[in-house]
Amino acid sequence: MAGINSALSAGRGFIVGDCLTLADVCFVAELGLFHNEKARAQDLKKRGLESILSEKVEEQFPDAMAHFAKLSKHPAFAPDMDPYMQKIERATA
């Protein structure tokens, strides 16, 4: 996350270069999967494990998290990401 945040902090619109690349595709897919931890927060805590997406992730990696939010709404990802993230939100409610 620190590397992604650093790459994006230079005002870039994408992780590598000036357009969507495999780096962005992998980033949105992997970070999306990490959101599954939200529904399992209590189980992680019982096992003495910390969530990868801690409560401070937005504060620690603002550019990376903003990029995730932007990519999640990108036409290439939104048809899959919107229902996926809604499912996670329902599971954590």
Structure description:
This protein is mainly α. It has one domain (2-92). The protein is 61% helix and 0% strand. The protein has six helices and no strands. It has helices spanning 2-8, 22-34, 41-46, 57-60, 62-73, 78-92. Helix 1 crosses helix 5 and helix 2 crosses helix 5.
Task: Please specify the SSE layout and strand pairing.
Blueprint: H1 2-8, H2 22-34, H3 41-46, H4 57-60, H5 62-73, H6 78-92
* Number of beta-strand segments: 0
Mean pLDDT: 93
Low-confidence stretches: none
The structural class is mainly alpha
Measured distance between first and last alpha carbons: 26 Å
Number of helices: 6
Residue fraction in strands: under 5%
Oligomer: single chain
Total count of domains = 1
The H-and-E topology, N to C, reads as HHHHHH
Helix content: 55-70%
Gyration radius (Cα, Å) is: 14 Å
Largest sheet: none
Anisotropy-based shape: globular
Features:
93 residues, mainly alpha, globular
Provide a short characterization of the protein structure.
By secondary structure, this protein is mainly alpha-helical. It has helices spanning 2-8, 22-34, 41-46, 57-60, 62-73, 78-92.
